[in-house]
Design goal:
It is a single chain. This protein has about 70 residues and is mainly alpha-helical. The protein has one domain (about 5-70). It is about 65% helix and about 0% strand. It has three helices and no strands. It has helices at about 5-15, 25-35, 45-70. α1 runs antiparallel to α3 (about 45-70) and α2 (about 25-35) packs across α3. The chain is elongated, with a radius of gyration of 14 Å. About 10% of the residues are buried. This is RND transporter. Keywords: Membrane, Transmembrane, Transmembrane helix. It comes from Aequorivita ciconiae.
Length: about 70
Amino acid sequence: MQLLNNWRIVVLLCLTLGLAPFFPEPHIWGKIKWIAGGAVGMKAADWFDVLLHGFPFLLLLRLLIRKILKSK
Protein backbone atom coordinates (compact mmCIF):
# COMPACT_ATOMS: atom_id res chain seq x y z
CA MET A 1 0.00 0.00 0.00
CA GLN A 2 2.99 2.27 0.56
CA LEU A 3 3.62 2.25 -3.19
CA LEU A 4 0.17 3.71 -3.93
CA ASN A 5 0.80 6.55 -1.48
CA ASN A 6 4.11 7.57 -3.03
CA TRP A 7 3.64 10.88 -4.90
CA ARG A 8 6.62 10.29 -7.19
CA ILE A 9 5.41 6.87 -8.30
CA VAL A 10 1.85 8.08 -8.89
CA VAL A 11 2.98 11.10 -10.92
CA LEU A 12 5.33 8.87 -12.92
CA LEU A 13 2.41 6.50 -13.62
CA CYS A 14 0.28 9.45 -14.77
CA LEU A 15 2.98 10.69 -17.14
CA THR A 16 3.75 7.25 -18.59
CA LEU A 17 0.87 4.77 -18.42
CA GLY A 18 -1.76 7.47 -18.07
CA LEU A 19 -0.76 9.39 -21.18
CA ALA A 20 0.77 6.68 -23.38
CA PRO A 21 0.82 6.53 -26.36
CA PHE A 22 1.66 10.19 -26.66
CA PHE A 23 1.19 10.80 -30.40
CA PRO A 24 -0.95 11.96 -32.14
CA GLU A 25 -2.65 12.70 -28.79
CA PRO A 26 -2.59 11.04 -25.37
CA HIS A 27 -4.70 7.90 -25.49
CA ILE A 28 -6.79 8.78 -22.44
CA TRP A 29 -7.64 12.16 -23.97
CA GLY A 30 -8.97 10.46 -27.10
CA LYS A 31 -11.08 8.10 -24.99
CA ILE A 32 -12.47 10.97 -22.89
CA LYS A 33 -13.44 12.83 -26.06
CA TRP A 34 -15.10 9.66 -27.37
CA ILE A 35 -17.11 9.25 -24.14
CA ALA A 36 -18.06 12.94 -24.14
CA GLY A 37 -19.32 12.46 -27.69
CA GLY A 38 -21.74 9.78 -26.56
CA ALA A 39 -19.44 6.72 -26.53
CA VAL A 40 -21.03 5.48 -29.76
CA GLY A 41 -19.37 2.26 -30.84
CA MET A 42 -17.30 1.71 -27.71
CA LYS A 43 -16.68 -1.93 -26.94
CA ALA A 44 -15.59 -3.65 -23.72
CA ALA A 45 -11.93 -3.33 -24.71
CA ASP A 46 -12.34 0.44 -25.09
CA TRP A 47 -13.86 0.72 -21.60
CA PHE A 48 -11.02 -1.40 -20.21
CA ASP A 49 -8.62 1.01 -21.93
CA VAL A 50 -10.28 3.95 -20.16
CA LEU A 51 -9.92 2.14 -16.84
CA LEU A 52 -6.29 1.20 -17.49
CA HIS A 53 -5.15 4.64 -18.63
CA GLY A 54 -7.35 6.49 -16.14
CA PHE A 55 -6.34 4.56 -13.03
CA PRO A 56 -3.13 6.56 -12.38
CA PHE A 57 -5.17 9.78 -12.46
CA LEU A 58 -7.63 8.29 -9.96
CA LEU A 59 -4.70 7.48 -7.69
CA LEU A 60 -3.45 11.06 -8.03
CA LEU A 61 -6.90 12.43 -7.25
CA ARG A 62 -7.06 10.18 -4.19
CA LEU A 63 -3.71 11.48 -2.96
CA LEU A 64 -4.80 15.09 -3.47
CA ILE A 65 -8.04 14.54 -1.55
CA ARG A 66 -6.17 12.84 1.30
CA LYS A 67 -3.71 15.72 1.49
CA ILE A 68 -6.50 18.32 1.55
CA LEU A 69 -8.45 16.44 4.23
CA LYS A 70 -5.32 15.92 6.32
CA SER A 71 -4.48 19.63 6.26
CA LYS A 72 -7.88 20.59 7.72
